[in-house]
Amino acid sequence: MTAPHRPTVILIGAGFGGLNAAHTLANTDVDVLIIDRHNFHLFTPLLYQVATSGLDPSEIAYPVRGIFRDADNIRFLMGSVEAIDTAGQTVTVRTEHQVIEEHYDYLIVAAGSKPNYFGQDAIREHAFDLKTLWDAVTLRNHILRSFEQAAWIDDPAERAALTTMVVVGGGPTGLETAGALYELVRHVLRREYHSGLPDTPGRMILVEMQDHVLNPYPPRLQRAAYRQLESLGVEVILGTRVVEAGPDHIRLDDGTVVGTHTLVWSVGVRGATLAERLGVPLKANDRVPVLPTLQVEGLPGVYAVGDIAYLEDPRGEPYPMLIPVAQQQGKLAARNILRRLKGEPERPFKYFDRGLMATIGRSRAVAWLFNRVQLTGFIAWLAWLGLHLITLIGFRNRLNVFVNWVWNYLTYDRSVRIILQPDGHHNAPGGAGEIAAAPDWLVTETTEAAEELETAEDEAALSVPLL
Question: Is 176 one of the catalytic residues?
Fold first, then answer.
């Protein structure tokens, strides 16, 4: 007598949505296959701290196989999804050495998002993203190399451009990145390069097209965040946008030209390119339309969660591309699959909003707890620290991050000020287009591959709304 067939659930993406779906399905009566281009889950809210030399890359990443080592029904496949055949119920995956076709009974697509440049390809060529671990390492390499180069240049204008950094976007990611970059320059790089750059203090500029920062937040917190940015030393330019970017400058829509070799783009995101392979009409920002049960419209047995999914809330607004939304949707999609297998009705998605928070720098932050309690300054910063430590995966990661944060707080030091690149490759300042090849310890990615499957969550999620 043959054993009964166990349904197979394929999960595309080991981000927050995919990881929560997998946790829900672990040790249940289904076979689960997780597919991702990387062998780790990335804690994206702390990417900017890797980029600003505050944390080591390994402290915000955890191996997927290690997370599910005790779940006998979960397998992992590292590779890029090349095709999804919803009629034949198969997923085609390209690994480093072969192409593999896997059958599924149920499919959960949690492929995340990618940066949105709104058709401005010329700006994209010279901008840095913060969506992947290699993005963060690349930006760190670039910043440190820029200061190394500036220390040996006699032209004051060129020195100023090399030590001027511009962040575009007044959302949580933009504020967190701008604050961390300024603190890196003020408390670390100014001291280390005081002999080579005695008259070049370094500038940190934040550009936001609206007349305020942190658009989803209440006005009181918007004003508090603006004041904290200025008190830190960040130059905030509101009501304008970047219309041109080159290797050594940007131009704003009011005609202002800023000399800079470092442009960090944190304006917006859209659904991963994988959304197009489902063969359904996409909604705004290339997101896949789903029913309240999170099943893709017109595709029975296929679910989409997180940034890539488009579902409207009771007010008729699409749910935001945030980490808590992805987490809750991942759990519900998995539970609905289990309900279907038991012959029970599926349940609709109901979002439990615990609020938002964003850090701006040392002892500076804003928090909107449960969309009711508004905190600013040191208290909000402590809440932000505690939340991040709780949600990091793995005790070792929590301990390492905590030790680094305590050390940074007491000494103003940044412990990971190293430039990583193989010999013979250079990540020269002057634009994100010249990127060094990734070292062997880090899984590399090309621009084309990054657009195929982006497991990192959305830009707004980097602010870590309350989990």
Answer: yes
